[in-house]
Amino acid sequence: MKEAMPVLTAGAGLHETLALLTSQLRPDANHKEDMVFLKDVFSERSLAYLMKIHEKLRQYERQSPTPVLHSASSLAEDVAEELQSGPMSTEEKELLHLLTSPHLKAVLSVHDTVAQKNFDPVLPPLPDDFEDELEEESVKIVRLVKNKEPLGATIRRDEATGVVIVARIMRGGAADRSGLVHVGDELREVNGVSVVHKRPDEISQLLSQSQGSITLKIIPAIKEEDRLKDSKVYMRALFDYIPLEDKATPCQEAGLPFKRGDILQVVTQDDPTWWQAKRVGDSNLRAGLIPSKQFQERRLAYRMKMGTLPNPKSPKKPVYDQGCDKEDCDCEGYFNGQYIAGLRRSFRLSRKDRQGSSGEGSDPGDPDFLTYEEVTRYQQRPNERPRLVVLIGSLGARINELKQRVIAENPHRFAVAVPHTTRPKKPHEKEGVEYHFVTKQQFDTDALNNKYVYTVTVSLLCLYVICTLLKVLLFLRRFIEHGEYKENQYGTSIEAIRSVQAKNKMCIVDVQPEALKRLRTAEFKPYVIFVKPRVPESRRRRSAATSPGGGEHGRITDEDLQEMRQSAIQIDQQYGHLVDRVLIKEDSASACAELRGILERLERESFWVPISWVRT
Known about the structure:
This protein has 616 residues and is α+β, with helices and mostly antiparallel strands. The chain is built from 17 helices and 24 strands. The chain has a 6-stranded antiparallel sheet. It has a 5-stranded mixed sheet with strand order 13-19-20-17-18. α1 runs antiparallel to α3 (45-63), α4 (72-83) runs antiparallel to α5 and α11 crosses α17. It is extended and about 110 Å long. The two termini are 60 Å apart.
């Protein structure tokens, strides 16, 4: 038999009803979580307080009390002045202390405001003769109420007619929120002051000095288009921007500062020179001005032509993390007692021998001008191959060790691409497990990467056949990087990465930054992690025998620490715009835990990626 719902008394309040409803909630077998959620919400103390406040306000509404006095503050001041005019008893001193306390003064001031119903700003009366002044032109009187925020509009003088018109409406500003002011509107008066013969800077000063209500007399534009819908264009900033240092911006105060890597929502691109944008995740709803992609590229091109643009490519090639510090890098692929296929990195070569897939003399990590990259949200679907995870590291990061630890913990989810080599196979090795063993001729063919120059005269048909065969070979097994060690060739191929992903495993590769652009494709959708060690200011701040990677590598000098810092700075300058996450390595254990967390989120959360990666 069901328990009957208790009957409420006639005088029961809303908070009492809420408490009674909470006590009657019973978990249901099919909706247990929902019932628990409702009970938690209704039992919240802050909600009960709000209900009590609501009841008091309703009670106040029904009683409609009238204030006894409209100027309690003045009465308190008069009493205080009277008390001070002569000798005071103990009670009178206490009363004076109460009347002059700031808290009581604030309460009395609020009382007077409520009593006088002085809530809204006093608006000036409408002018009676504006129709006569403007003859037959349609006119619009706009009254805006703003606080200390900018009006959110810029003006300019039309060169043809000489009239002052609204040049730009900033999204989210007071003018935009009103919906009454539009681009192209002619401005005639501000707070009753004619602006017909004033300069735009004088009008801007007049607008900025106005507080409270602003009355604008406007001739509407002939065409008023609805441009208030937010754009769905998102851009990743590839450079830092400080409006106060930009002399070209039409209004420095209206500029939107941002840093490299920020995601910007471009709300309007009507102006080919200055876009309006918001920072994603920013609590400020007002849009700001940013230089358009085309305008920023033109500025950079001009600075390069004039020789004032710093070269982003360092004259000295950055020093990268080395995968192995032993004399013979061809070490056994064991970690924590478990063998991991493909963890041997004999091709973790010296800096001078290591080659990227793009060949010498080119730097794919640096586009001509870094401005913006259009992006969108992407989340891996269950039927899709896992994203490629790419590790790059500055000197001392020891990313190969970090990668090995993560894979050893879960070899069923993570794996590496099995490299190719021309060295002879050892007795215990198996083809496709430790390495793909190929001949030097096969390796050279796969490593061509379009670097042949043909000097032999052949027929067009033969040339076509040769080029087709080469394209097929390069497509099947093109190296992302390769090099020579002890007269043997080593390299990692794209096909090896595809082989790992075909097994529905997340492939983790550590490469030199030059290979990033080769891997940034819609097929792999790489997530790039830049690992750099936390380098102390001086070697005295750390154990003299411990390296930033956490291993034992002898004593470290201040010069070594400086080289590590410089390595991280150079990589960040040249390739930072391609990086999705920076991992500061304190020690191997914490870095491994952080990397593991990143990989787990990569499978279940959405991330910003170039829009070209998801377009069909």
